[in-house]
Amino acid sequence: MIDIHAHVFPRISREEARTLAGAGEPWLREGMMMSGDEDYRPVTPELWDAGARLAAMDRTGVAVQAVSSTPLLFGYEAEPGRAADWCDMVNDRILAYCSEDLARLVPLCQVPLQDLGRATETLARAKAAGHRGVHIGNHVGERNLDDADLLAFLEHCAHQDMPVLVHPWDMMAAERMRGYMLPWLVGMAAETQLGILTMILSGAFEKLPGNLRLCFCHGGGSFAFLLGRADNAWHRRDLVRRDSPKPPSAYTDRFSVDSAVFDPRALRLLVDVMGAERVMLGTDFPFPLGEEDPGSVVRACPGLSEAEREAILGGNAARFLGLTESAPRA
């Protein structure tokens, strides 16, 4: 099994976090993610201890994880120069973390996405150092993924043969989603659907190279379940199809999603919509809302052939990440 969606929060001190100068200033206190001087969320050692992670992977039969930063670390609200320095430091820490076993821990970098020039420069440094892809948020402030600079960055990733993992963050309507983890339960799904539909309806996929490897986390959020609604709107309203020459369902071959939907029936729908070749195992490890028994939903999903299960559990991710056939098997 290859897990495309697994997070790390490397050891970062309070003093180092001041690099972001008021933009969240995330750091790690043993057992707690911090935002400035405030407790953010309790966490377990797998998040910062590579040995603990590898032991957990052994227990659950995961051969390889693509390791991406916790979105709290993005730093998109910081001044671009400080954000570039911050991303370099985070990327170095992720690479050091993955160096515990680079055959099993595949590092994904982050970039200062608020500044196109610095983002491409940071990507170049990270790729040269050994990162195998890039992890980005689904928006930067009020700019969605159809923003000209963000599209230019995605095009650059395609030219550099760097796969892109898109994760929701800084969820909408926070003032209306207080308590019950509603930003994670509602906001993340909505943010991801927004990212996908914005790219489709803006015509972004018409402009981007076909070789771009793009994956949206959390099963693409609400996208698959509400695709019929989007197609219906495209066929009936000029203002919906103004910039998109094809209905939304015609673009499902331009991106992938992970399998983190936690219900075999939901996964069945996701595979029906996206195709088995566009779904990859994703667990959101090691957070409590992640899949505790990796692959169990894929194995319980009705109607999948053995070849489709193998593709979702590992084969698709191996191609997405550019891994060799010699990748270890659990």
TrEMBL record:
- Give the EC number(s) under which this enzyme is classified: 4.1.1.45
Q: Which GO terms describe its biological process?
A: secondary metabolic process
The record's listing under Pfam families reads: Amidohydro_2
Protein's UniProt keywords contain Iron-sulfur: no
Indicate the enzyme's highest-level EC class: lyase
Q: Which residues form the Amidohydrolase-related domain?
A: 2-323
Q: GO: which molecular function terms? A: aminocarboxymuconate-semialdehyde decarboxylase activity; hydrolase activity; metal ion binding
The protein's UniProt keywords, in alphabetical order, are:
Decarboxylase, Lyase, Metal-binding, Zinc
A GO CC annotation recorded here is: cytosol
> Which pathway, per its entry?
Secondary metabolite metabolism; quinolate metabolism
Oligomer and partners: Monomer.
Query: What family is this?
Result: Belongs to the metallo-dependent hydrolases superfamily. ACMSD family.
Q: Could you tell me which PANTHER family the record lists for this protein?
A: 2-AMINO-3-CARBOXYLMUCONATE-6-SEMIALDEHYDE DECARBOXYLASE (PTHR21240), 2-AMINO-3-CARBOXYMUCONATE-6-SEMIALDEHYDE DECARBOXYLASE (PTHR21240:SF27)
Spell out the protein name for this chain: 2-amino-3-carboxymuconate-6-semialdehyde decarboxylase
Species in which this protein is naturally found: Nonomuraea endophytica
